[in-house]
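User: Here's a protein and a ligand (iron/sulfur cluster). What would the complex look like?
Assistant: Let me lay out the input and then the predicted complex.
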Amino acid sequence: MEGVFTIKGLENVKIYIGKFSEEEPQGITPMPNIEDLREWDMKLLKRYKPLYTPLSERCTFCTYGPCDLSKGKEGACGIDLKTQQARLLLFTTIMGASAHATHGRHILEHLIHMYGRDHQIEVGASEDKTPNISLVAGIVPKTLGDLESVLTYVEGQLSHLLASLHTGQEGSYLDFESKALHAGMLDHVGMEVADVAQVSALNMPKADENAPLVDIGLDVLDTSKPVIVCIGHNVAAAYHIMEYMEEHRYDIELGGLCCTAIDTTRVDPKRKIVGSLSSQLRFIRSGVPDVVVVDEQCVRTDTVKEASRLRIPVIATSNKIMYGLRDRTNDAVDEIVEDLVSGKEKGVLILDLEKAGEVAVKTAVAIHPQRKDYRLSDPERISELVKDCTGCGNCNFQCPEELRISEAMGAAKQGDTSLLQKLDECCIACGRCEQECPKGIPIVDVIQLSVLPIRKDKSKVRAGRGQVSDPEIREEGRNLVLGVTPGAVAMVGCPNFPGGARELYEVAEELVKRSYIVMVNGCTAMEIARFKDDEGRSLFERYPARFLKGNILNTGSCVSNSAITGAVIKVATIFAKKQLLGNYEEIADYILNRVGAVGVAWGAYSQKAQSIGLGCVRLGVPVILGPHGVKYRRVYVGHTYNKDEWWVYDARDGSKVEIEPAPEHLMITVDSKEELLPMIAKLCIRPSDNNFGRMIKLTNYIELSEKYLGRLPDDWHVFVRTEGDLPLAYKDRLLKILEDEHGWKIDWASKKIVEGPMRRLDVSFQPTNLKKEGRE
Amino acid sequence: MSSSEGKGKDKDKGKNKLDTTRRAHPYDRADFMGTKSARAVNPEVIAKTIKKMKRALLVIGSNLSDEELAKVVEFAKVSGLEVVGAGGVAGRLKDIPNHYMNLHLLVGYIIEGWKGFDGNGKYDALVFVGHIYYHLSPMLRALSNFSSTRLISIDRYYYPSADMTFGNLSDEEFIQALDRLIDIMREE
Ligand code: SF4
Ligand code: SF4
Ligand code: SF4
């Protein structure tokens, strides 16, 4: 038995039972329990106040309810609306974190089965190969076997967190928040286990800035060959399909959807990515796949229903998604293939992944010749499909993207498909509209048919490069902390974009041109790869992939978000030489005050995206969400008018210093690209910036505000500590504004600020929120 | 993104006379109605209420065509309301004095009892127009539960958590409703 235990009466004493290769957990809070980082959370929550936006005012968790919690009322158990919102948030965060942790458990066990417990962890040129794990758990795993105890710790914590959701347990919204932050932190540990295990064992690129460029798009597959499509996030099943194809020299197209796709190309760059989550229904409805293989997370729950309409057999390969299918794990391959090809079974469950690989390949080859008639290919059919549309508008009232479907249908009835083509850019192919159409019009198909004649969805994305190496951090960490590199922006998350993906591509392009380090992965990497410049090159073809300003890095799949937090952690440990092992609070404090990193989850939809975001927040990295993010029900906003919240200790002497609001928020939504860009620039500002760094950050903040919001920001002056902070190009103009509008005293002869700033620049200022450090 | 025709059964009703109380259901049908939901009213009622307010703030969002935004600006001028561009729309607000503030932040500030852009005291009403439905609706639910500010929508959507709102309007009806509001605000 391995894990962490406490003994009654000795709750502060932890006993670690585990087989770590060299050392016992170390640090101040190794393998923290729920309460161990609570003080840090409360510091954050005091400055960054949780703001709740309930979707419902009722609670329906137990049979005392439903209870009405509106307008200050309490439920039968005594809970109020704020606390219930925080409780729901903890619930969804645990969902997200456990999805990754159990994904980690599954792939780790599978890889140990294939390669043994002693297989070495190898992720590239790094001493700290597992920054999240080492920071949280206080150990340095060396082998796959060492990762098992880490997951035991995470799983144990998640079940404690889950227990606190029961009626009559936690009663404070702040403690629910602290617990959600705990779950978010654990999520990055679970993700890192999954990612380092697969990078080490499956020979994926290891911190490789030259990771190959791979094909992406709905039109990249050669449809004259049998097509297998893998959907989900866990590459294990897809790996065995590839292995079987290679060994037996099958000429088959293997495409992927969602993060499994990204990870197949990390294993073998010949493989192709069809697209993100929002391509799932589109691609199944296209009729192109001859076999669909699903693993786990974010797979449409109606996959068997949709696929079977087009005679596409489904193979489920994980106990997370079994779809009620018959378990054929122990049956003979040929029998299973026969049942699938004949249509006797719409799908099967096969938990032996090697067998699943063989069945998928043989089924695809056998069924391919029979399936050619099922392809969606004839745009002429549109007029037939839309002719019964009554213009009732029911579809509009269902569409989560607020698309004007009925208007596009009306135009299509008149023979004009241009509005349908416009819808295609923004439609997430959720199918909600079809559910309410009284005429049963297959709206998703109609939209897709409208673009078939013009669509050329073929592009290039860089295969996930994995972690950021130590040499890269050594080269760039200093610039990031001093602000000379204006920020590291992680653009991650799902494709629930307000108004399509093009804007996100434009944001990434603007940032990379402005010398930010742009880090992407998962569905965001796939979506921005689809857009090209005039010469037909995607961002990944135009910009290099080093952890360096003006670069764009695809770290990999969802679980490679841990490579992003890992890089930020390593800035603190490598550049600032902070202790890594079990030293969460000090590292998070360093990041909050000194590392200009921001997360952007423009289209976040899932519970996983929520937990990833919270893991960033606890670590001191602000997160900006698109407008759909309001449905997560809570953000963390700073209140700048409340001056009492904006101070830190100076670690040199422990004195309290009033600071500018930096970063101003830890989580917030914005409504548009125009609002997003200046917000990114602002949230990259940190108290530690030197004057050159602050000048660069302020230049970006001011220029982006003027470009997109048509004005100087109201608050630019609060970030000015000295004339050296002012953007050179506008120095005179800004000095004049400081004098005229803010009453600052300017010495015009020397162009120096004599009086005005809330604090002066102090180059050796060491901002910290930790009193302990301040006293030293 | 944007609004709806939503004609159907109501197609022939009130063709000539503007009636903004119809289609009083959440624009996104699946959104929650709330334990108590908003009254859908005609522009006259809203105009009368706004006139009674001492310190109302007009909160404009980005989900407006140029024509619609021009009407909203006209409404701001005739009503004399203080204006905030709550989002990317700020870059399109040219002809009136206005502030920019993030919508989420504004909601947070209002709930905490913020004293306004000029520091002179709380707003007694917020008047919303031009927002993405799914973005504003939960924000209104926050405000209705955690603040006492009056919540008025002159947007094209029915917002269940406002105190006062129109029903879901077609583009044409939305423009007519804005015109009507402008006319009434002009009448003193
Ligand atoms: S499938 Fe597309 S058009 Fe239909 S509701 Fe979903 S996003 Fe809207
Ligand atoms: S719901 Fe169906 S019939 Fe009604 S407008 Fe939409 S497509 Fe046409
Ligand atoms: S809210 Fe999300 S999980 Fe629930 S039915 Fe809709 S898509 Fe599925």
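Summary: Residues 34-186 of chain B form a domain with the Rossmann fold fold (CATH 3.40.50.1220).
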